[in-house]
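pasting input
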Amino acid sequence: MDHFGLRREASIDSNDTKGDENNSNLDLKRGSWTVEEDFTLMNHVAVHGEGRWNSLARSAGLKRTGKSCRLRWLNYLRPDVRRGNITLEEQLLILQLHSRWGNRWSKIAQHLPGRTDNEIKNYWRTRVQKQAKQLKCDVNSKEFKDTLNYLWIPRLVERIQASYNSNNQVNIQQTNDNIISNNNILPNYSSTTTTTSSENSIVTQISDMSDNCYTNYPLNQGDYGEILISPTGDYFQQGALDFRTVDIINDNNNDQQNMSQLFLDDHVSDNLWNIDDLLFLQQQLN
DNA sequence: AAATGGTTCAACCGCACAATG
DNA sequence: CCATTGTGCGGTTGAACCATT
């Protein structure tokens, strides 16, 4: 695919004009945006600002609905939009926040700077749901949620740490506390500070994002020994997972605090669900 | 090389809600 | 209130891309 998303031919046949401008359907263009259209839209937004998309489309001479202009701007043309290469940290956040909020894509996107709800939604559908399908369980099932919370998220944390360790950039605080709340299976990452003075400085703050939850992550095997019992009372034997608390801050009323600078380095980009992970998962479940 | 099937993701769709007059 | 218009959201679609046969 090219970098302008020019993948679709225009198909002028729809009745999606409810709530849109007075443009005649016959004049409306649909499908992929051309470079010229993008340029026109960008210039117009630069001069007149965002909003009033219907009138903007008219005054710019774009034969597009206001909706289409808004979507193109927000998902593609906006200067700060980030596309592709969902980092491990972003994957972690998506899994966490989806666990908490479900398909509230725009709300989740608010915590991933530069990412759009559309991209997160696509990520979830194409990657996460696909894995649920491969595991032959429903994405909303307890089994899959437990798999996420007790295997995949910890595995992600492990990989993130490994990635940072490889760059001598980790300072994940370790505590001996394991805090378990029975009414929330969402892990709690908070105040994990990663700093370095190198020129490739990474300053990471993962602030609290959960209301009231426990914080267990298997960062190294052998840290803890006993059988782990999930809140739902299932599996997780010794050796399968060992947990280290990252940190905890409970601030239930401030979800959006200090989420900046969480996604700084694409070198840790990776797919969450690779072959190693699947093998790892199968081993744990056998 | 061609056919086929699976995957990705930009764009569309329909609906709900807010703002405005 | 009510109607109209604008905006935002989550679900869905389908063309382009990619891998396999």
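fyi Residues 142-165 of chain A form the longest helix (24 residues).
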